[in-house]
Specification:
Blueprint lengths: L20 H13 L7 H27 L1 H13 L1 H8 L4 H21 L2 H15 L8 H13 L2 H30 L10 H5 L19 H15 L1 H17 L18 H36 L7 H10 L4 H26 L2 E2 L2 E2 L1
Antiparallel strand pairs: 1-2
Helix pairs in contact: 1-2, 2-3, 2-4, 2-5, 5-6, 6-8, 7-8, 10-11, 12-13, 12-14, 13-14
Length: 362
Amino acid sequence: MIENGVYGYKSETPNAQVPPGYPLFMAAVYKLAGYTEHDPYPSIRYAQAVMSLATIAIAAYIANRLGGPIAALATSAAMAVYPPFIWANGAILTETLAAFLLLAYLALQLGALNKLTPGASMLAGAALGLAMLARSEFAVLLPCSYFLLWLIIKDTRSTAKLLLCAGLGTALALSPWVLRNVVTLHKPIIASTQVNPFAAGTYPNKNYDDGLVDRHGKTQMEVAKERLRIGFTQHTGTYVKWYTVGKLRAIYGRMFFGSGHSPMYLDFPFRQPFHVAIVLGGLALRRAAASQTSQLRMASRRLSGHDLGDAPGFRARVQIQLYGDADPHRAGRAAGRRAGRLGAEARSRRQRRGPREGGRRV
């Protein structure tokens, strides 16, 4: 790509087998490091170490908003010494960049759910688009975020408007890549054409030599679909177990260390007990946060009952505002200001519609 200007994964001709985020990051570091005279890999690892520190800072910010300073400190401490995060800094893989962009999106999305403004939603959507250029599977987070919002505020029109703005932001971030694919490959490819992760997930317990399907002369997608069809019809119990508890155990039951790199770094001592301790600690913090959430919900009810009981969707908006800030007093003041604005908007709408007469508007 640097020398010939051709973006193709394991090919000298253009393709879209993998999204361009990490290759573009590598290309930038290659150029800055002077790859013709110096090995660029150390520079990539240094850049990823700095990016990892920024990721910890963003995670601490999110934790502070949701759980307060103690949660932020615990999050920072756990991430700073968590072996997979340390290992990923030295790996020439998408993990570090993807984690940074994902946490940046989550921070902006949290702000968008608090502000409920088109601009904030569009900015969060653009951040998600950049994250998708590193790992396309993040796309599912956009509809999930606004479905959660709809469950809280029960306002279909407002939710749809914000989702549309977020989708527009995502589309703008992805547009250069999509246009490149249309012009070069004559296809509107949004993310990538690879299906390897999806296909790999169809092998229960990662047994890649089970011989369930003849792979000769078939694409990965064809093999994956055939494996799912045969697996769920002829080996139902095995596949149901794998796609429920099996994958959860494989993903979260132990730490991820990839395939390692050279020179191999020494393993973190007691890494599996440390991993279990972090998981259990997170559950304990979640339990403690539930108590604080109930107190914030009670505060939101008081605000909605005394300040603006007739504003449409106000109670839900106050709840979102409070949940997004670990300081109830500061959140309450912010919610009060927003309540006043929403109340003025509600009164203005009623005045425009005119007075009621006999239960009907005139």
